[in-house]
Amino acid sequence: MLPSANLSEKYENPDGETINQCQYCAFCERFACEYDAKATPDVTVIKTAQKSDNFTLRLHSNVTEIIKDEDDDSKVTGVKFTDTVTGEEFIQPAEIVALTSYVFNNYKLLAVSDIGEQYDPETEEGTLGKNYSYQLHSGATGFFEEKKFNTFMGAGALGMALDDYNGDNFDHTDLDFIHGGLIDQLQMGARPILNNTVKGDTASWGEQFKEESIKYYTQSLSIGGMAGTSPHKNNYLDLSTDYNDIYGKALVQMTFNFHNQDYARFEFLNNRCEEIMTAMGADSVEVKPTPENYDIVPYQFTHNAGGTIMGADPESSVVNNWLQHWDRDNLFAVSAGSYAHMSGYNATLTVGALAYRCAEGIIEYSKSPGRLES
User: Fold this and answer.
1) Where in the numbering of this chain does the Glucose-methanol-choline oxidoreductase C-terminal domain appear (predicted)?
2) How far apart are CA 157 and CA 144, in angstroms?
3) 13 and 79 co-located in one domain
């Protein structure tokens, strides 16, 4: 089974927060829960923190820069942020700064604040922006002429996962790639229009499209294969020299494409998905085409990784295994940017584990400031 934040019955967690029973409303996949039936931070962590006198939630605010200590090059002194409603700029002093704005913005804040050495693909020196990784989503869709499924019902992570072809769980002797990927069959609640599933030779509009959209809404199933891309010296993040954001800060520029290992995993998982869907009795099966190059359209994943990678020394990484920045002792960065490479799973659970690890590090640092030991 897949790990899920949805609850099958009402539950009070150790912090005293109540999480309600899932209603299977089919509007869960990428959305907050109106029933408070999802164990997400807005229902659990933030509500608990708001009961404390040591927490302030500041909405409509955008941090634009990390402020370095002019007298101590091993420290930062806070952040600069802008109120996005009034346009006012503020300085927030801090004894400890934790970046938690995920891969791209964590990278950007470090880069525009000139903290760390930018990775150079020509010399392969520097670490900031290095090892940007992503995922490839292969899969197969089966069309059933007689069988029907309740695909209109679902929850955010309702489904089954097959790990037989993930990581090193299978024999690679005759294969030309390392690692592997997850195969899953999900029922997250097919949203109308966006999830219209029709055969590949169907027109994208008109009477046939409407008829087949209605028919196959409950008479099709898809199996997905999720494989991480390998880190490559030519895949990295840096700052644009041509474009700035509304605050005058350089935008993040991503240089990325798929490589041979990535394509090999994609095609291998595609074939496995086709075999499984055929065995399920589909009357016809269509597999995903192999992409020629990376393209942001259509949407694929929000599973980004790398750019602020974690490691054992400052020569090859940005943060240590406490997520503490090598150059600034009181600066921490939490996200999948810490990953040296992407895996065959979503990034979320490991990011959660790293957040706990980082929190422990921050507590230790607050007791005894300095470089934390691994």
Assistant:
1) 231-355
2) 24
3) no
**Same domain, yes or no: 274 and 153:** yes
Count CA within 13 A, CB hemisphere, residue 139. Answer: 18
CATH number at residue 345: 3.50.50.60
Give the residue numbers spanning the domain of 226: 135-233+258-287
In the chain, the N- to C-terminal Cα span, in Å, equals 34
**Do 69 and 116 have their domain in common?**
yes
| Closest of 263, 264, 275, 301 to residue 140, by C-alpha | 275
**Phi/psi at 61 (5° precision):** -130, 140
Based on the fold, state whether residues 283 and 318 are members of the same structural domain.
Answer: no
Q: Are residues 147 and 265 in the same domain?
A: yes
Residue 59 corresponds to which tokens in the numbers above?
């909405």
Contact (Cβ atoms closer than 8 angstroms) between residue 342 and residue 228: yes
Cα–Cα distance, 146 to 130 (Å, whole number): 51
Give the full edge-to-edge strand order of the sheet including 154-162: 154-162, 181-188, 220-228, 135-143, 284-287
Q: Which residues does residue 142 pair with via DSSP β-bridges, in sequence order? A: 221, 285
Alpha helices for 22-134 (secondary structure H): 45-50, 102-112
Residues labelled as active-site residues: 303
Structural domains of the chain, count:
3
The tens digit of pLDDT for each residue in 228-274 reads: 999 999 999 999 999 999 999 999 999 999 999 999 999 999 999 99
Between the CA atoms of 110, 111, 112 and 114, what dihedral angle is there, to the nearest 10 degrees?
A: 80
CA 179 to mean position of chain CA atoms:
19
Instruction: For residue 105, count other CB atoms closer than 10 A to its CB.
Output: 16
- On whether the pTM is more than 0.70, the answer is yes
- Based on the domain organization, do 191 and 265 belong to the same domain? yes
Domain co-membership, 44 together with 66: no
Asked if residue 39 belongs to a domain, the reply is yes
HSE of 176 in the Cβ direction (CA atoms, 13 Å)?
Answer: 8
Domain co-membership, 116 together with 161: no
Across 172-196, b (16+ Cβ under 10 Å) vs e yields eeeeebebbbbbbbbbbbbeeeebb
pLDDT digits (tens, 9 = 90+) for 3-28: 677 888 999 999 999 999 988 776 77
Residue 296 lies in a domain: no
**Dihedral angle over CA of 200, 202, 205, 206, nearest 10:** -170
